[in-house]
Specification:
By secondary structure, the protein is an all-beta fold. Helix content is 0%, strand content 48%. Strand 7 and strand 8 form a beta hairpin.
Length: 115
């Protein structure tokens, strides 16, 4: 059974930075496009960044220039470096295959941006 475990969230002030990690177990994800999704209170889950097996990246306009997705295939882990955080980035962040989620969703990691 595939497990996706997200970590690294927390409370950060506007303008601050956080780095999220997503560790996959039960399957090798190096051959798949992986993405970071987020779901804010009262809103639908949205894809904010994705990275192909070859390392090509793509970002939602709302995070472009501030967020960087990366992956370490040896560790079966995907990362999201978030800089210049804004209050509107507040959400629970999840990882999965992208753009369509192939695996069950993990618990996510909560990011709260507030002064």
């Amino acid at each position: 059974q595939v497990q996706l475990v997200e970590s690294g969230g927390g409370l950060e002030q506007p303008g601050g930075s956080l780095k999220l990690s997503c560790a996959a177990s039960g399957a090798i994800v190096s051959g798949y496009t992986m993405g970071w999704f987020r779901q804010a209170p009262g809103k639908q889950r949205e894809l904010v960044a994705r990275i192909t097996a070859g390392g090509r990246t793509n970002y939602a306009d709302s995070v472009k220039g501030r967020f960087t997705i990366s992956r370490d295939n040896a560790k079966n882990t995907v990362y999201l470096q978030m800089n210049g955080l804004k209050p509107e980035d507040t959400a629970v962040y999840y990882c999965n295959t992208a753009p369509s989620a192939m695996y069950s969703w993990g618990k996510g990691t909560l990011v709260t941006v507030s002064s």
